[in-house]
Amino acid sequence: MLKDLGVMAAPALFLFLLMGILTVTGLVSAPIYYSVSLYVFLLLAYHFTRGDSAFLFSVFGKRYTKMLFVVEYMLLSIPFLCIFLYRGELCGVVLVPLSSVLVSIIPCGGYSLRLPTFPFLASGSYEYHRAGRLTMLLLLPLMAGGAIGVYVGNRNLVVVACMIAVSVFSMLLMREWHVEYLFNYRSAARFLKLKLLYALRNVCVIFLPFIVCLIIVDSCLPQLLLAASYYLCASLLLFQVEMLCVVSGGTNSGDDILQVIAFMVLNAIFFVSLIVPQAMPFSIIASGVLAFQAYSIVRKYKL
Predict the structure, then answer these.
(1) Which of 60-64, 162-166, 174-178 has the lowest mean pLDDT?
(2) 175-184 confidence digits (pLDDT tens)
(3) ω before 79 within 30° of 0 (cis)?
(4) Distances from the Cα of 261 to the Cαs of 11, 230, 235, 267, in angstroms?
(5) DSSP classification of residue 300
(6) Cα(165)–Cα(161) distance, rounded to whole angstroms?
(7) How many Å apart are CA 174 and CA 287, to the nearest integer?
(8) Is this model's pTM higher than 0.70 or not?
């Protein structure tokens, strides 16, 4: 995922660092079974999706491969062991190594978490499928965070989870743009029409759990308007990013810094428009300007 992000990996790494700090802070104060459950879940996810199991079994044999798994998983458990030792939880110190041994015995490999992803997206939205595959493992905990916010009645937590989800997803829509891509469209007007239509449709599918969380966290008219504003602002942001790829020539055109600045400005407009509904016209204007520039570029190829 970091390779696909390119120069935009810096804000993604900052986001992951922030999430890591919050996770460690939460684990230090959370009940012990939360920490053990999280470790077992992460270990099983890693164990079932490892792609080196066939190679290791063919080189080292079954017995020594299982031993390698045990050693590797014990190394991965060191952060959890440090947390349990810091808290003086001897039960966790015993359960985590035991889990490492038991998981290493289970047959592994052969599973993929990349497909299928969002099977209900509109046909032709390959860029949304790609971004969905790369962000799925991040969208799931964000969805869980939104659900927790609904459960505890924390409206701000739900809003923050919704904003992060759209911002991270929009990063993965930044990609290299090729002229051959336009051969799938009859005209420049149809190109813009379908891009806007896909954004409206796909946001409704991808971010539907977040929209639902916004609606039910506080059942009142202003909250319904916030959910509608979130849907519209997210659709416009993804449409703007797609137009930015056309205008700037993609992510390998030599103007990476300018593209990052433009991307950050578009995200800032999204945040402001969501928090202050009166700023919504700025998002609409930005969409119109980028759409006009993209239309002018596409027209050069006589579409």
Answers:
(1) 174-178
(2) 777 766 666 6
(3) no
(4) 12, 23, 20, 10
(5) T
(6) 6
(7) 16
(8) no
